[in-house]
Amino acid sequence: MKKIIIALAIALGAFCWPKANLALGKAHFTPGGSGYMLATMPPPGLFYLMYNVWYQADDYIMDNGRKLPGDTSTKVFTQTHRLVWSTPVEILTGNLMFDIVIPITSYNFGSGLAGNNDAKHFGFGDPHSHVTIAWHRPRFDALASLAVHFPIGDFRVKESLTSPGLGYWGVQPTLGLTWYFDEAKTWTWSTVVRYEISFEQRKTNIREGDNLHMESSIGKQLGNIALALSTAGSWQTTDSRGKGAPMDGWRTERFALGPEIQVGLGRWGSLSLRCLFDVHSRNNPEGTMSVLTWTVPVFLHQK
Fold first, then answer.
1. pLDDT tens by residue, 58-97
2. Beta carbons of 85 and 99 less than 8 angstroms apart
3. Is the CB of residue 22 less than 8 Å from the CB of residue 57?
4. What region, left, alpha or beta, does residue 237 occupy, with left being phi > 0 and alpha being psi -120 to 50 degrees?
5. Cβ neighbours around 59 below 10 Å, total
6. Which residues does 115 contact at the CB level (< 8 Å), separation at least 6?
7. Residue 257's pLDDT is what?
8. 2-300 — its CATH code?
9. Distance of CA 34 to CAs 14, 19, 29, 64, 118, Å?
10. Vertex 215, ends 209 and 221: CA angle to 5°?
11. pTM for this one?
């Protein structure tokens, strides 16, 4: 039973990804923090999660597929703190869950992306919250979720490129599925699809385009260690609108893949390390993302 709880806590760490808006398209959500068993939620209880996310890129890929000349280095570090409450309440035979997320982000963009000088910024990002229903069945798990991004982070109009807060509301419905290939649930395939809807940005009247995010993984559980191959993709589905928005047809794309390892730490929860390499970018940096997640069960509801 303890191993099952650890595995579910690890999966929670994958699903509850910090929204570090790495792309210049400035969506709230950046895929890549989700991995092994990302659509499997934990049992009823309270969980604390701390994410440490590093992203570094030396190239920026333009709309025509070519690299932007000059110094286009991108360096981002985000630490996110999250509380998740999985309640014993059942809705439509699934467990009801709530959470609150607070990200802190540091940006550093090269002069090719920020004009004649490097651009740097550090501050609080926009917090967000999920309401989730999670189902557990013998051969699969599933989830349905709705997230809301609150525009109360550190937002500066004149420094919008590196501003941790984005200055607009966002809504994000999510569906996910984990499939078990064997009865022991050691081989798994998991995927989550999210659709991010953006609203008008204050002070600029710009409305960023909507985005489709997809993440998947296939993994193997070996005792208290899990190994997996994960993928992450994001596609802007509508044009940004408003004075100062990118030209029509200017949309962001990104696809990345890479390995991960997750280790159970007993009563201290679990650690997961994921490294994803961008293999396709459009109007985006092209680099490497590393994510270290610590997940701790604060308490579990007794049956």
1. 998 988 888 988 878 889 999 999 999 999 999 999 999 9
2. yes
3. no
4. alpha
5. 17
6. none
7. 96
8. 2.40.128.130
9. 4, 11, 11, 29, 31
10. 165
11. 0.87
Residue among 195, 273, 270, 223 nearest 35 (CA)? 273
Q: Counting Cβ atoms within 10 Å, is residue 266 exposed (0-12), middle (13-18) or buried (19+)?
A: exposed
Domain boundaries, the chain: 2-300
Residue 291: count other Cβ atoms within 10 Å of its Cβ.
26
Return d(Cα 14, Cα 261) in angstroms, integer: 12
> Tokens standing for 176?
């996910």
- Assigned token pair, 47: 């969980």
Cα maximum dimension of the chain: 61
Q: What is the pLDDT of residues 24-54, one digit of tens each?
A: 447 888 888 778 899 998 889 999 999 999 9
Ramachandran bin of 279, using left for φ above 0, alpha for ψ from -120 to 50, beta for the remaining angles: alpha
